[in-house]
Amino acid sequence: MSAKLSVNVNAVAFLRNRRDLPWPSVEGLGRIALQAGAYGLTVHPRPDERHIRKSDVGILRDMIRKDFPGREYNIEGNPDAQFVKLVHEAKPDQVTLVPDDIRQATSDHGWDIAAHKSFLIDVIGLLRSNGMRVSLFIDAEPDLPYLAKEVGADRVEIYTGPYGGAFEKQAMEREFRKVVETGKAAEKAGVGLNAGHDLTRENLPRLVAALPNLREVSIGHAITADALVFGMAETVRLFRKACGDLRSEAA
Fold first, then answer.
1. Which end of the chain has fewer CB within 10 Å, C or N?
2. What tens digit of pLDDT does each residue of 56-96 get?
3. Is residue 100 situated within a structural domain?
């Protein structure tokens, strides 16, 4: 059992923007992550460009397409007109739709699919017609994968923040069960399964073992934090091990 690792480089960009200098290099560290075997890169551009900038989106796309054919590019974001225009220009492999508010420090909830059904059907249909796989960011609620299927999503990404951020055993067990039940519901509903937020080397293996259908995890904060200790390449290898990803380095 294994899940593929997509490295979210938002935190790298946030650190760069803190001093408005060209380092740390988002492209450079993204390249190191891919060389170490990451399955792909994830970015989540926001309108205020407080971390990933529009210019980063094209630079990373060109690097992946030229130097790492077969690896995936995932762009996350709230599908307003500006975001839809950006992804149509970038043409990533996957678009993850997230119901962000500009005031949020980070994503902290999934879609109310029933309330936005018509909107999501239109946006997902538009993106898929242009060759992009669409994943819908959802809370850990077992009925949501079925609704995601109804609006045309290829995959769901379960928001795992409550699980990853739970440090009291009873709360952690409760949130773990909710994620697993939702992941199993995704398989029954016929949609692919991704997960992300506050996943670490410690809490990943158990989740991967419980959900054989988990295809991809998108991780940024924990990878960036561990990279300060181990370096990016070794951190990616450690997270790949936690994901059960046993592909050879040559692959």
1. C
2. 999 999 999 999 999 999 999 999 999 999 999 999 999 99
3. yes
Structural domain for 203, as ranges: 4-243
What tokens were used for 233?
């390449």
Other beta carbons less than 10 A from residue 108's beta carbon: 15
Q: How confident is the model over 129-182, as pLDDT tens digits?
A: 999 999 999 999 999 999 999 999 999 999 999 999 999 999 999 999 999 999
Q: Residue 47 carries which side chain, given as an amino acid letter?
A: P
Q: Any idea which residues carry the catalytic annotation?
A: 44, 76, 197
Count structural domains, the chain. 1
| Residue 165 covered by a domain | yes
Selection from 216, 104, 112, 121 nearest residue 160 by Cα: 216
- Report yes or no on whether pTM surpasses 0.85: yes
The predicted-structure confidence for 20-66, as pLDDT tens digits, reads as follows 789 999 999 999 999 999 999 999 999 999 999 999 999 999 999 99
Q: Are the C-beta atoms of 52 and 92 separated by less than 8 Å?
A: no
CB atoms < 10 A from the CB of 144, how many?
24
Euclidean distance between the first and final Cα of the chain, in Å? Answer: 18
CATH code for position 38:
3.20.20.70
Within-domain flag for 64? yes
CB 111 within 8 A of CB 120: yes
